[in-house]
Design goal:
The complex is a heterotrimer of chains A (about 290), B (about 300) and C (about 325).
Chain A: H1 2-13, H2 17-36, H3 74-110, H4 112-127, H5 130-141, H6 145-172, H7 175-182, H8 187-224, H9 235-242, H10 251-278
Helix pairs in contact in A: 2-3, 2-10, 3-4, 3-6, 3-8, 4-6, 5-6, 6-8, 7-8, 8-9, 8-10, 9-10
Chain B: H1 2-29, H2 33-37, H3 44-53, H4 60-72, H5 86-121, H6 126-138, H7 143-157, H8 169-199, H9 202-210, H10 214-232, H11 234-252, H12 257-266, H13 270-298, H14 300-303
Chain C: E1 4-17, E2 20-33, E3 37-41, H1 48-55, E4 64-73, E5 76-77, H2 83-89, E6 94-97, H3 101-104, H4 111-123, H5 127-140, H6 146-151, H7 159-171, E7 177-181, H8 189-206, E8 209-214, H9 217-223, E9 226-231, E10 234-240, H10 241-246, H11 251-259, E11 308-311, E12 314-316
Parallel strand pairs in C: 3-8, 3-9, 6-7, 7-8
Antiparallel strand pairs in C: 1-2, 1-4, 4-5, 9-10, 10-12, 11-12
Classes of the chains: A mainly alpha (about 290), B mainly alpha (about 300), C alpha/beta (about 325).
Chain lengths: ~290, ~300, ~325
């Protein structure tokens, strides 16, 4: 017992402080970014266009990361952009995660034809480049937050379903489940009280590792014009709109992309650490896709 | 084995059918396609003409029937914008993308396999940390952003590589590399963890007991086993590649399938959209079947069932 | 019969972990004569497998290391040999059979590929003569239809068959010493006996020596001429097997014997040894068995007893015999 505690403590000691802090900052900005931004993110100014970052000639401390082609402060826009990225991620993961977990539990627990059907559908979903479907949805129904969330949810559920189903299959065979059944517990009760707690850690790791990927996909969609529409700052759109200025004002597409990369990286590192702490067997989890 | 192949093909066909229905519905759900394709100055007669042209005046199930029977023969109609047969545009663009994707996969594998193996063999050394760092980074960077930065750096700043086009091997470098980053990172990690597991096996211990050199143990006995999960993930990576191709082709102006898909959707060119998505689905299905067959072939436990 | 083929002298293999130094093998000495089967007996975790892996220098580094002692194979110290030299010895002079046949064979290579590999490495045979030899090995292990088996994959064969293949691989280069690590534990009861008899037969044919690692006294009785009892990384008693059974001297040996009921005996209560094996990174001072010993004296808790000779071939490490 002591050995277990020692092991836990040593794992806890390897907590990745920097990624954890960055993630914390990200979430904080997502909630309060707009209020804390030094300038209103959408405030345009004809005179203050294309100001370079503070360390370059012509830069100014008032606009540490420079301004864009409409004179808007980059730093403020990036801070405010955290909100969209965060909420899209949360909502789509919630949607995909709930649906996927539910279906995965049902599929794994009941088995049979439903299981086969569900898994085939999941496989088909995973194998299809969803960005096409997402784009189509966006164009046909008009780009909006809901559509992006739904599209992402459509992709994510499959991953959750498959992994959760696998876990359920292994938990299902364990003795305490058989005991519960013998004691007369209903199926639903078994699923909630016995199976779910055992797959919790898998779920948590999966959730954390997904955030980074979702943020990148959302940014990609926004880059292609199929994401969240403006005028609110969206990192992906900032990159695509800034693309044509890359030779003259490199910072316009650079910093939003850096933000995406940084946040994604830190979520991944956090997820990896979580996986090590909670369940090292989960090597299949993670890696986008 | 044969039965397996047949079953897989059958499953794919069914999935394709489902996909066709989904596309069919989606395209019409956004509003009357004829209305959307009507120019500003269009009149009621123009509207009727378009409707008739596209067969939109017939009942819905007939429309679908025509759609499917044409699709099976490779006829997706004509692009609204270019008036060319959709299939022609696809036939032009698809090989370019395939060339890019294949190059990309080769680069990814050539880099990731040694990296993954060495990271496992030299676990917890600087090499291992480096490999894991690179892999972690590779899975976190947005492909299109990296592409843009690469262009900025190599084309504008260093002036060593061309910005767009397809004519020489130099043109392939950046797009292929960009496209392959994610896959490279994923395979490095996967291979590393698989190798670590395999290297702990009893049969590896047996190989050492036999007197096999460490190199033989790692690259022959262990790797052969570790590659199996990598292949099995192939299907997932193919979908990722197609997604990435759309982005990369957009950034590097690569005249490929991804760009075709993008412009089709943006311009609401419905015949082209239908053709593109179904083709994409078919290509992915085929690639997946090939991957599955490859996996079944490589693993004697599946290839030969006693 | 009295020429020692293998002499292990004060072998020490330690593992350096974050919880301390695990003394897996701590001063083990024994010898194995030519044409002799020597048993290494003890509970799980006592160090018998690590001892044999140390002989082959296959202890997982960098955590595990041989920190002292000698392993003399026909007079040459294996501990001092380079990795290259060891590779020539492994599989050709000394060979080993592992416990679980289901995991001992590489699933992606054919049986033939795995059998011929060692022969190719050590004896340099090629082509027809290589495969001839492989066939002969399978025949020697009484594997039916050897040509077909060579083309099979491991998953197509039963456990018993696989263990024969493993045996064929182990003996393919005519080793002088075969180490068998619980080779029958994972087999069905019905084929266990068969396999043991086979090993016996092969030993008589080829004149090789064997080290048998086991926790099963029945196997010891059947297969071994001499045996050593191990506990927590040390050998506590060594003797001819008959002596060991009739006159177990060390309190641990005695307790072990008592805990195994004999078939004809009417047993009221299954005897077990009180207490637990101490953690190997935190061993008690003095004699390691002292906390569980029924004959413990004060001296036992302070110093580790020296090895005493009861008679020729029978040694014990216990203060009660000094």
């Amino acid at each position: 017992m002591l050995k277990g505690w020692l092991k836990w403590k040593s794992k806890l000691k390897r907590y990745p402080v920097i990624p954890g802090t960055v993630v914390g900052i990200f979430i904080f900005l997502a909630l309060f970014g707009e209020l804390l931004a030094p300038h209103p993110p959408n405030e345009m100014s004809l005179t203050k266009k294309f100001i370079p970052p503070v360390w370059q000639g012509g830069g100014s401390i008032a606009y540490p990361l420079g301004t864009d082609m409409l004179g808007r402060d980059m730093l403020s826009r990036i801070m405010a952009g955290a909100r969209i990225s965060f909420f899209v991620a949360i909502l789509s993961i919630l949607l995909g995660g709930l649906v996927g977990t539910g279906l995965g539990i049902i599929s794994g627990y009941y088995g049979g034809t439903w299981d086969v059907l569900l898994m085939r559908t999941a496989d088909a979903t995973l194998a299809f480049p969803i960005i096409l479907l997402a784009m189509l949805l966006a164009i046909v129904l008009g780009p909006s937050l809901q559509n992006v969330v739904v599209s992402l949810g459509l992709v994510l559920w499959a991953r959750y379903a498959r992994i959760i189903r696998g876990e359920v299959l292994s938990v299902k065979e364990r003795d305490f489940v058989a005991l519960a059944r013998v004691a007369g517990s209903s199926n639903v009760r078994i699923m909630f009280r016995h199976i779910f707690p055992n797959i919790r850690s898998t779920l948590l790791v999966l959730l954390t590792l997904q955030v980074g990927w979702v943020i990148i996909v959302e940014a990609s969609l926004s880059f292609l014009g199929a994401g969240i529409p403006g005028p609110q700052p969206v990192w992906g759109s900032m990159i695509s709109k800034g693309r044509e200025y890359i030779t003259t004002a490199w910072w316009i597409p650079f910093f939003p992309g850096l933000a995406v990369a940084l946040v994604c990286l830190c979520f991944n590192m956090l997820g990896d650490w979580l996986r090590e702490v909670l369940d090292p067997k989960l090597r299949q989890v993670g890696g986008g896709g | 084995m044969q039965r397996y192949i047949i079953v897989r093909i059958f499953q794919s066909v069914i999935t394709l059918f489902i996909l066709s229905v989904v596309i069919f519905v989606l395209v019409r759900v956004g509003g009357d396609p004829a209305l959307l394709m009507l120019p500003e100055s269009g009149t009621k007669e123009d509207y009727q003409t378009i409707k008739k042209q596209m067969g939109l005046d017939k009942p819905i199930h007939v429309q679908y029937g025509i759609f499917i029977s044409d699709a099976v023969r490779g006829d997706f109609g004509r692009s609204v914008r270019t008036r060319r047969p959709v299939m022609d545009s696809i036939k032009e663009a698809l090989p370019n993308s395939i060339k890019l994707v294949v190059t990309s996969m080769v680069i990814a594998l050539v880099l990731s396999i040694p990296l993954g193996v060495m990271a496992a063999v030299k676990k917890d050394t600087y090499l291992d940390t480096f490999a894991r760092g690179v892999a972690g980074l590779g899975q976190s960077l947005p492909t299109f952003w990296v592409g843009l930065m690469m262009i900025q750096f190599f084309v504008v700043y260093l002036k060593v590589l061309p910005a767009s086009g397809m004519s020489s091997w130099k043109h392939y470098l950046m797009p292929a590399f960009c496209l392959g980053i994610f896959m490279m990172a994923g395979i490095t990690r996967l291979l590393r963890s698989t190798m670590l597991e395999v290297l702990d096996s009893e049969f590896i211990r047996m190989a050492r007991i036999k007197g096999v050199s460490e190199r033989g143990v790692v690259w022959k006995h262990a790797l052969r086993n570790s590659l199996l999960p990598v292949v099995s993930f192939g299907g997932v990576y193919i979908a990722i590649m197609v997604t990435g191709a759309i982005l990369v082709e957009s950034v590097f102006a690569w005249p490929g399938f991804g760009r075709l898909a993008y412009s089709a959707i943006v311009r609401q060119d419905f015949p082209l959209i239908q053709g593109v998505i179904l083709t994409a689905g078919a290509v992915v299905m085929v690639a997946n079947i090939i991957t599955d067959i490859l996996y079944a072939y490589l693993d004697p436990r599946i290839r030969i069932q006693s | 019969m009295m020429n020692p083929l293998l002499e292990v002298k004060e072998l020490r293999t330690y593992f350096y972990t974050r919880w301390g130094t695990v003394k897996a093998v701590d001063g083990v000495s024994f010898h194995v004569n030519e044409r002799e089967t020597f048993g290494l007996v003890g509970e799980s975790g006592c160090g018998k497998s690590i001892t044999c892996l140390s002989i082959l220098r296959l202890v997982s580094q960098p955590a595990g290391r041989i920190v002292g002692g000698e392993v003399l194979l026909q007079g040459e110290d294996l501990v001092k040999k380079s990795e290259r030299e060891m590779r020539k010895i492994r599989g050709s002079k000394i060979s080993m059979i592992l416990q679980d046949p289901m995991t001992s064979l590489n699933p992606v290579f054919t049986v033939g590929a795995q059998v011929t590999e060692g022969i190719r490495i050590h004896q340099g045979l090629k082509g027809k003569s290589l495969w001839e030899r492989a066939r002969n090995m399978l025949e020697m292990l009484h594997v039916p239809s050897p040509e077909i088996r060579l083309r099979n994959w491991p998953h197509q064969l039963s456990g018993g068959m696989r263990q024969r293949i493993v045996g064929a691989i182990a003996l393919s280069c005519e080793p002088r010493l075969l180490i068998a690590d619980e080779p029958t534990t994972a087999l069905d009861a019905t084929i266990q006996l068969q396999y043991l008899r086979l090993l016996r037969e092969l030993q008589e044919k080829t004149g090789l020596s064997m080290i048998f690692i086991t926790h099963n006294f029945g196997v010891v009785a059947r297969m071994c001429r001499r045996a050593a009892v191990m506990y927590a990384g040390k050998i506590v008693e060594t003797a001819e097997v008959r002596e060991l059974f009739n006159r177990p001297s060390h309190p641990y040996t005695e307790a072990l014997m008592r805990s195994v009921p004999k078939a004809e005996e009417k047993v009221e209560k299954l005897m077990s040894i009180e207490g637990q094996v101490p953690p190997l990174h935190n061993l008690p001072p003095g004699c390691i068995f002292a906390p569980r010993c029924s004959y413990v004296k004060d001296k036992c808790r302070v110093d580790y007893p020296p090895t005493a000779e009861i008679n020729k071939e029978h040694t014990v490490s216990c203060w009660n015999f000094c």
